Amino acid sequence: MIKCIYPNLVAMMAEKNISVADIAEAINRKPETTRKKLAGINPFDLNEAMGIQEKVFPEIPFKILFSTKAAIEKAAV
């Protein structure tokens, strides 16, 4: 599991099998740069965050996807 300050984003990445490299490609950044942003070492700028939501997770509201509190629950198996 990757280190990420956005629990809903990392949960959706896992659910949809989306890698850090996929996120990096969506926002035209290097994977290492993106990994640091996910970990909260460097912040996403607004355009990057919006790009991730619009290109990769359009079905998830921006506010939920980039919340630092978990809001997405897995469906019971």
Structural summary, described in words:
This protein has 5 helices and no strands. The chain is an all-alpha fold and 77 residues long. The protein has a single domain (7-65), classed as 434 Repressor (Amino-terminal Domain), CATH 1.10.260. Helix 2 (20-26) crosses helix 3. The chain is globular. 18% of the residues are buried. The model has no long low-confidence stretch (mean pLDDT 90).
Summarize this, please?
It is built from 5 helices and no strands. The protein has helices at residues 7-15, 20-26, 31-39, 46-55, 62-65.
Instruction: Indicate the CATH architecture.
Output: Orthogonal Bundle
Give unreliable regions as ranges.
none
What gap, in angstroms, lies between the N and C termini?
21 Å
Return the CATH class.
Answer: Mainly Alpha
**How does the major sheet shape up?**
none
How many DSSP E strands? 0
Rg estimate, integer Å: 12 Å
**Sequence of secondary-structure elements:** HHHHH
Structural class: mainly alpha
Number of separate structural domains = 1
